[in-house]
């Protein structure tokens, strides 16, 4: 298991100085990778809002615990 850190950013409109969107990405500490074990593996998690809504609907229907 590799350690990871979430990096959060706020994007702003230059003219109005208003926040237009929030962005997040997951960074893995690459210095902990080991050759032939997890060195060549890459993973970029991407989620769409429709996927999130589907999983939440399934959780409600199946009475799964959520946090």
Give a verbal description of the structure.
It is a single chain. The chain is α+β, with helices and mostly antiparallel strands. It is 21% helix and 28% strand. The protein is built from one helix and two strands. It has one helix spanning 49-62, and strands spanning 4-12, 19-28. It has a two-stranded antiparallel ribbon.
Key attributes of the depicted protein:
67 residues; two-stranded antiparallel sheet; 2 strands
Give the structure's gist in a few sentences.
The chain is α+β, with helices and mostly antiparallel strands and 67 residues long. The chain is built from one helix and two strands; from the N terminus they run E-E-H.
Listing every helix as H and every strand as E from the N terminus to the C terminus, the arrangement reads EEH
Structural class: alpha+beta
Q: How big a fraction of the residues is strand?
A: 25-35%
**Radius of gyration, in angstroms, nearest whole number:** 18 Å
Strand order of the largest sheet: 1-2
Main sheet properties: 2 strands, antiparallel
Oligomer: single chain
Shape: flat
- Report helical residue fraction: 10-25%
H/I helix tally? 1
> What is the number of strand segments?
2
């Amino acid at each position: 298991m590799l350690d990871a850190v979430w990096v959060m950013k706020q994007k702003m409109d230059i003219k109005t100085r208003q926040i237009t969107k929030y962005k997040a990405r997951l960074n893995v500490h690459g210095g902990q990778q080991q050759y032939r074990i997890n060195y060549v593996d890459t993973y970029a998690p991407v989620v769409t809002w429709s996927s999130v809504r589907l999983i939440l609907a399934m959780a409600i229907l199946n009475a799964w615990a959520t946090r």
